[in-house]
Specification:
This protein is of the alpha/beta class. Helices cover about 15% and strands about 25% of the residues. It folds into four domains: about 160 residues, Molybdenum Cofactor Biosythetic Enzyme, Chain A; about 45 residues, Molybdopterin biosynthesis moea protein, domain 2 (Alpha-Beta Complex); about 80 residues, Molybdopterin biosynthesis moeA protein, domain 3 (Beta Complex), CATH 2.170.190; about 70 residues, Beta Barrel (Beta-clip), CATH 2.40.340.10. The strands form six sheets. A six-stranded mixed sheet has the order 13-10-14-17-16-15. Strands 6-3-5-4-7 form a five-stranded mixed sheet, with no helix packed on it. Its cofactor is Mg(2+).
């Protein structure tokens, strides 16, 4: 199987993986812990918003009919019956010829059907028994009606939505102190290869520190998952298979790095031939990371990424991040590329689409995707600068500067112009 792999596109492989994933169970969390989580159910407005007729500004609540003849040079004078602040309930109705001094957000008094701002009255900063109105008003002007923004029973946030700060505000407004969300995916992480040593161990000849596990743990945490770290996997097939069979029982998704190519010690590649293992894909039309592999072990998904740091990073963004979104209950999961102009020519030929790490810039109103030319699969020095993956189509000509390319954004752009 290692030497007779069937090629699949990135999109085909991703759909093959997502089709095997199921949304996780839900759990109740406090409102303060809901940020970044995925809603398990629709959220319903428990009351009208606004919950009462209210003033959207500081001024005077009046009857519009009393202001018909008001003008700057001929004010209409009304008797002020009370002052109402936000949070207070008006006690006195507004009868003809009367007005109530009212603050932003305060409940409208009975009888009033419009509000005039302080700036359109005489001596707005002076508290007096009479106010001079200098402009005619229409019924309903400067008035927020009960339920005009959101009616009670309206769905204000849908199942599958990610909770952001705005969602938190909506939930708080409607009294949701607890929220039903999808539980965080537990994601197992392991690396293969006897050449790896721990981050805090000294280097020896032929050895490298295990940077992939640390990187993947950070990416999983960023995506809302819980990384579960396992020891480095041995290169011996029977022992590796036994350990992985145990590991997958503890997690929702197992991600490995290394061991997916065709070398003598690539244990994950050999694992794909085992009868208890269901192979989803093990050769993808992409550079870097074409040996990226998807498996099922004991019914659990295993995503095996390349051991080269750059290829591992790209494989995570193309497959692991969407998988985590799917597990967490996001309704529609896809890579969702945008269009941008290529900032510099990339003419390196490739038989498969190439995914270049890069950054996004904005110049003269045009979105520019600037490639990171440190794009060898084993290079990691500029990983920290990556904001997007720039897709260079398969073929011999590459792309010239200024041509449109697909861009998959994975981080908040910094918009820095330096290269």
């Amino acid at each position: 199987m290692r030497f007779s792999r069937q090629m699949k596109t990135v999109e085909e492989a991703l759909q093959e993986l997502l089709a095997r994933l199921q949304k996780l169970d839900e759990e109740q969390v406090e409102l303060g812990e809901a940020y970044g989580r995925i809603l398990a159910h629709d959220v319903i407005a428990t009351c009208d918003m606004p919950p009462f007729d209210r003033s959207p500004l500081d001024g005077f609540a009046v009857k519009a009919a009393d202001t018909v003849h008001a003008a700057v040079d001929q004010p209409v004078y009304l008797r002020v019956v009370e002052t109402v602040a936000a949070g207070q309930v008006p006690r006195i109705p507004v009868d003809p010829g009367c007005a109530t001094r009212i603050m932003t957000g305060a409940m409208m008094p009975a009888g009033a059907d419009a509000v005039i701002m302080f700036e359109q009255t005489e001596n707005p900063g002076v508290h007096s028994e009479v106010v001079g109105i200098k402009r005619a008003l229409r019924p309903g002007e400067n008035l927020s009606r009960r339920g005009e923004e959101i009616a009670q029973g309206t769905v204000v946030a849908h199942a599958g939505e990610r909770v952001n700060a705005g969602t938190i505000a909506v939930l708080a407004t409607f009294g949701y102190s607890q929220v039903s969300v999808i539980r965080k995916p537990r994601v197992g992480l392991l690396s293969t290869g006897i050449e790896l040593v721990a981050v805090d161990e000294p280097l020896a000849p032929g050895k490298i520190r295990n940077s992939n596990t640390a990187m993947l743990a950070a990416l999983i945490t960023e995506a809302g998952g819980i990384p579960v770290l396992f020891p480095v996997l041995p290169d011996e097939l029977a022992e590796a298979k036994q350990k992985m069979t145990g590991y997958v029982r503890e997690v929702d998704l197992l991600i490995s790095s290394g061991g997916v190519s065709v070398g003598d010690y690539d244990v994950i590649a050999s694992l794909a031939d085992e009868p208890e293992v269901t192979l989803l894909f093990n050769r993808i039309a992409m550079r870097p990371g074409s040996p990226t592999t998807g498996l099922l072990m004991s019914g659990k998904p295993v995503l095996a990424l390349s051991g080269n740091p750059g290829a591992c990073f790209v494989g995570y963004e193309l497959f692991a991040r969407p998988a985590l979104q799917c597990l967490a209950g996001k309704k529609q999961v896809s890579l969702e590329p945008i269009k941008a102009q290529l900032g510099s020519p990339y003419e390196k030929p490739c038989p498969h689409p190439r995914y270049l790490r890069g950054r996004l810039l904005q110049k003269d109103g045009v979105l520019i995707a600037q490639p990171d030319f440190n794009d060898k699969a084993g290079n990691l020095g500029t990983l920290k600068n990556s904001e997007c993956l720039i897709v260079i189509p398969a073929g011999g000509r590459g792309k010239q500067a200024g041509e449109l390319v697909d861009v998959i954004v994975h981080a908040q752009p910094s918009w820095r112009e330096e290269v």
